[in-house]
Amino acid sequence: MAQALASATQSVRELTARASADLLAKAVRARSIVRVELDDGSDRTCCARLVGADGARLMLAADEGPGSTLLPTSAPLLVNLTVAGRRYTFASRCVVESTASPEDAVAITRPRSVAAVERRRSRRRFMGNTTVTLTHATETGPVHYRAAMLNLSADGLACRVSAAEADALTRERTVRAQFALGSPPVPLEVTGRLVSRTDAGTPGQVVLGLEFLEDEASRAARERIGQVATTGAA
Questions:
Q1: HSE of 136 in the Cβ direction (CA atoms, 13 Å)?
Q2: Is pLDDT above 60 for 68?
Q3: What total number of domains does the chain contain?
Q4: Inter-residue contact 225 to 181 (CB < 8 Å)
Q5: Which pTM value belongs to this model?
C-alpha cells in the first residue's frame, strides 16, 4: 500500500502495529473526521467521523452535508484522516451496509497498520495582504469563502478563516482556490484538498492547510506558484 500511495509531492511511512493502534485510539477519542474514498475507480467519496473501534472493526458515523454517499458491503476503501495536524491513510473494507440515516454507524475493517503521509517539503513564501477565495460545490450551487493567505508553496498553502466557515469547508475537503500573484496581478486557480485545521491563536479563527491536487486543469497555475514560491519573483 505504501508504494501505491507515494507521489512526486509526498511519501508514506508505515507505522508499527502498536503505533497504529495508539493513533486510532486517539482518533476515536477525538471523533476525528475521515475522508473515505471508494477504491473501485468510481471516484466516489464521503466524509464521516470515527466514533468507535473494537479488535476487528472501526465504526464510522456519516457526516451530514454534500458529498456523502452510501458504502456498499465489501467495497474496497481508502481512508484518510488527520490527527494533530498530520495526515494518515489506510486501506479497508465496509463490512456492514450503511443506510441513508447519518446517525447510523458503519463498520469497516480495522487495519493492521496505518501509513503516515509525509509531504516532501517545498520552500514556502510568506504572504501578506493576499486574499484567497475557497469554493466548493453544494446541491444548491457553489459556495465561496474569502480567507487570508498566510503562506504559499509549490504544493499547497495555509490560510486563516473563521471557525464557522472552516466547519462548512471541512465537510467537503476538496475545494477550488482562487487568488492573484504578481504585479500586475495574475489570477490563478487550483484544486486542493483540505488536510489540516489548527487554532489560529485568535478566538473564532482557525488555520486551514490546503494541499494542491495534481489535476491537469490547474497544472499551469501550479507551475507558476512553484516559480514564485521558489524564487520569490512575482
A1: 19
A2: no
A3: 2
A4: yes
A5: 0.50
- Calculate mean pLDDT across residues 49-53: 89
Q: Which among 203, 130, 192, 132 has a CA at the least distance from the CA of 156?
A: 192
In the 3-class helix/strand/coil scheme, how is 30-82 assigned residue by residue? CCCEEEEEECCCCCCEEEEEEEEECCCEEEEEECCCCCCCCCCCCCEEEEEEE
pLDDT at 72: 66
In this structure, the answer to whether residues 78 and 8 fall within a common structural domain is yes
Q: What is the 3-state secondary structure (H, E, C) of 169-209?
A: HHHHCEEEEEEEECCCCEEEEEEEEEEEEEECCCCCEEEEE
Backbone dihedral angles phi then psi of residue 50, each to the nearest 5 degrees: -85, 110
Note whether 173 and 193 are within 8 A (CB). yes
- Average pLDDT, stretch 62-72? 52
Determine the structural domain holding residue 24 and report its residue range. Answer: 2-119
Give bridge partners of residue 191 from the DSSP assignment: 176
Cα separation of 71 and 92, whole Å?
Answer: 12
| Terminal Cα distance for the chain, rounded | 39
Determine the average pLDDT of the residues in 123-127.
67
